[in-house]
Specification:
This protein has 1 helix and no strands. It is an all-alpha fold and 40 residues long. The model has no long low-confidence stretch (mean pLDDT 89). It starts with 9 loop residues before the first helix and ends with a helix.
Amino acid sequence: MVRPENEPPEELRETQEMLRRLGVLMALAMVLTMIVLGLR
């Protein structure tokens, strides 16, 4: 299968996906922490 030159390799795409999920998880954790701290 021939891929275009400007398309990122598979590993890079997977890493970007993982980083995006990590960012979302971190944001959710921050929000949860703020809520918990605010309730105390």
